[in-house]
Every structure is written in structure tokens, then in C-alpha cells.
Amino acid sequence: MKTILKYDSTFEGLLCSIFYVYEHKLDLVSIVKKKEHKPSFFDDSIEIISETNKARRVWTGLSKKISTRGKMKLYKAFLSENPLIEDKILYYLRRALSSKVNIENDFSDPQILHLEQIVKKVNREKHRMDAFVRFRLTQDGVYFATVEPDFDVLPLNADHFKNRYADQMWLIYDIKRSYGIYYDLLKVETVTLEISKDVNSKNNANTYFTYEELKFQELWANYFNSSNIASRKNMQLHIKHIPKRYWKYLSEKNC
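Below the sequence we write its predicted C-alpha cells.
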């Protein structure tokens, strides 16, 4: 009988699940998010409670076999939200902990290769969010931006925006996952809040954003349009560098 470990969808919860696997010497096991678990008559399911101490023990212990870069790769893989990513990470760890040599670049192993490919996609999405996020100044004095990335990359973007916009308060909100990262001039923290669906509506913009901000957005869009040279327009190249799915973030595309 296969053992199913259900966890709370957090990275800490995943590490606690891995702790449980080794603590109880489980062989035939699968780790799934609690909200995605589908009960089966033939499986035995166990709910894992997140405990910071156990998660820290696992994360610290991995340093004996996996480099800092390798550990970061596992975190990025988790943020991909890829189906069955938990089992892929568990497989990777089992190989790493049982091998006498470093397996991080053993791409002859299809599962390790697949994990590497997933991480590359996450990295690409992270860098695109760094480039394509556009802030607007709200009437509360906070620079606000909405995103909807393919992967859960906001935790990876925090340092970039903290360093780049250290002198202003800002909030980047992930519409798809209903949470954001907020910088209060001292630190970045994760926040969960309800954002009205009409926040990006042009008709309601003056409800949320300052008059000066709206005029600036309009000015920027006019500059963008006027600086284009129609005879040199290459839409295929433009889309290659800025895929259409990112246009909704760009003020110059939405005015």
C-alpha cells in the first residue's frame, strides 16, 4: 500500500513531509498538497503538520550533500507548481543523500534533467517579472502593481525590487494566487488581502490612483506611440522580446 503525505502547500510543509519520510523510513510514498489530494481506497493518507524546527533540520542537513545553488534549485522547482513536483524533489533528494558523488548535474538521469528544465522556466519567468512590472502611485502613497505569472515567482522578485526601489513603499500583488509582497521602507513581507477586480479597469482608475499618476501614464503612452517608426516596425521581433501575455502589465500598451 502506498502512503500519501498531505501537506499545507508551503515549502516548510514540504520539508516536514520529507522529514517524515526519513523518520519513518517510508519507501512507497507520495507527497501531495492537501487541497489537491484525492482519496483512494488503496492508499493510506497522513496529514503532515508544518513545524519550523523539523523544516529547518531538513534544510540545514541538505547542505552536507547539496550545494547552496542546488538547494535554491529545489526551492525554485517547488515554486513552479508543476504537477507531482513534490515527488520529483523527493526523488532528487533521495539520490543526492544516497550517492557518494554530487548528482546535481547528472543530466543522464531523466528526472534530474526534467527538474533542471523546470527551474530554467522559473528563472525565465522571474527575470521577466523583474523587467515587466509597472508601478502606479495610489492615493494612499503606495506604488502598486499587479502580476499574474505562470509560476509562483514573487518570493524570488523581492530582493530585486527592494534594492531598486528602496526609497518608496510598494506592493506587488499576484492576482492568480491572491497574495502580494509589500515593502514598507524597512522590510519586505508577504501579505494576503482581497483586491477588487476592477483595480485595473480604466473606468475606475481615478478611484485608486492619483491624478498625477494617471496623467503620467498617459504621457508615457503618448511618448511610446510617437517614438515608434512605422516603417521599421517588426512585430515578430517585438513579440519575441515581449510576449503578448505580458502586455497587460505594461502601461504603454494599455493607455
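The chain has two domains: 2-124, 133-254.
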